[in-house]
């Protein structure tokens, strides 16, 4: 019989933490004079524990199917398969979120954000259909608010 090959890829959710964020550097600007974005990111303790547990699960699966394991997982989480979201979060509290539940700015009533930045969290899965659904829901809300004369 021919040898079979099996490859595992582990994807897990990184917890949202205030330390992981995007800021701007007011002292460094792009060619248009706009301050450049600066990504701040570190895996947390929970992220590392989840990564270790996931690797252990893969090892156990491989033992059960009597296979040889060639692991290149390293000793800590690395890399991303990520769709960056959550920079303009949706929520009910203006102190911890920028947008209300209809993707409308808490402070600027005619500002609506319907891309992935309104997400409070997301996995590495493609967010396109969720973005489309939120956009449709928001457009219906805008239409209703305009009808009532509130926008």
Low-confidence stretches: none
What is the overall pLDDT average? 88
What percent of residues are in strands?
Answer: 5-15%
Into which percent range does the helicity of residues fall?
25-40%
Classify the secondary structure makeup into a structural class: alpha+beta
Largest sheet: 2 strands, antiparallel
Total beta strand runs: 2
Strand order of the largest sheet: 1-2
Q: What's the shape? A: elongated
Radius of gyration: 21 Å
Distance between the termini: 70 Å
Number of distinct helices: 2
List keywords for this structure.
151 residues, alpha+beta, 2 domains, 26% helix
Structure description:
The protein contains two helices and two strands; from the N terminus they run ββαα. With 151 residues, the protein is of the alpha+beta class. It folds into two domains: 11-80, no CATH class; 81-151, no CATH class. A two-stranded antiparallel sheet has the order 1-2. A hairpin with a 5-residue loop joins strand 1 and strand 2 (35-40).
SSE layout and pairings?
Layout lengths: L20 E9 L5 E6 L4 H20 L63 H20 L4
Antiparallel strand pairs: 1-2
Write a short abstract of this structure.
By secondary structure, the protein is an alpha+beta fold.
């Amino acid at each position: 019989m021919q040898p079979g090959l099996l490859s595992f890829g582990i994807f897990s959710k990184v917890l949202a933490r205030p330390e992981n964020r995007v800021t701007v550097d007011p002292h460094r600007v792009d060619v248009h004079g706009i301050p450049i974005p600066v990504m701040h990111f570190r895996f947390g303790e929970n992220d590392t524990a989840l990564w270790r547990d996931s690797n252990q699960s893969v090892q156990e699966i491989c033992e059960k199917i009597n296979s040889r394991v060639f692991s290149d997982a390293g000793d800590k989480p690395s890399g991303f398969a990520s769709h960056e979201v959550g920079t303009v979060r949706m929520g009910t509290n203006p102190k911890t979120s920028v947008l209300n539940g209809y993707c409308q700015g808490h402070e600027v009533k005619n500002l609506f954000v319907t891309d992935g930045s309104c997400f409070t969290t997301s996995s590495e899965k493609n967010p396109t259909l969720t973005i489309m659904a939120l956009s449709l829901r928001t457009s219906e809300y805008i239409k209703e608010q305009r009808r009532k004369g509130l926008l």
